[in-house]
Amino acid sequence: MDLRVVPRVTFTDPGIASVGLTEAQAGERGVDVAVATLPMTHVPRALAARDTRGLVKLVADAKTNLLVGAHVLAPEAGEMIQAAAMMIRFDLRVDQIAAMLHPYLTNAEALKLACLAFTKDVEKLSCCAA
Q1: Of 23, 73, 24, 38, residue with least CA distance to 53
Q2: Could you tell me which residues come within 8 angstroms of residue 26 by beta carbon, excluding any fewer than 6 positions away?
Q3: Beta-carbon neighbour count of residue 123 at 10 Å?
Q4: Hey, where are the domains in the chain?
Q5: pLDDT tens, 68-108?
Q6: Cα separation of 46 and 106, whole Å?
């Protein structure tokens, strides 16, 4: 059993979900930490639903680009966190996820946008840009 990838979810409004390490925990373990934070105001689904509360915060290893932690405060946070758990479990790099197609107009698209935020200013992208 890989306990690194046990998702934690608190069913509040908005929801809270987390998997992996926090920024502080990663630093304590010697990880060269890179962080990307994406406010839900940049997620098309959140805009369409008129509920832009929250954010997605991703913690990665700057040397390898591997995701080591994900934290979501948003409606549907519990639904969104499993993809991040799979990213950690299967050693997917944030650039690999950023390059994938994600279903448009879903909250899960926030993970792709957060991965893009490591290298791009997401606020300046159109809805379909990469």
Answers
A1: 73
A2: 33, 59, 61, 68, 69
A3: 10
A4: 3-121
A5: 999 999 999 999 999 999 999 999 999 999 999 888 999 98
A6: 8
Query: CA 13 from chain center: how many Å?
Result: 18
Distance CA 46, CA 114 (A): 14
DSSP 63: T
Q: Tell me the pLDDT tens digit for each residue of 37-65.
A: 999 999 999 999 999 999 999 999 999 99
Judge whether 38 and 46 are in contact, CB under 8 Å.
no
The CA distances from residue 13 to 7, 16, 74, 76, 130, in Å, are 18, 8, 8, 9, 30
Superfamily grouping for domain 3-121 = FAD/NAD-linked reductase, C-terminal dimerisation domain (3.30.390.30)
- Return the pLDDT at 31: 97
Is there a contact between 29 and 19 (Cβ–Cβ < 8 Å)?
A: no
Alpha carbon distance 122, 112 (integer Å): 10
Distance CA 10, CA 125 (A): 31
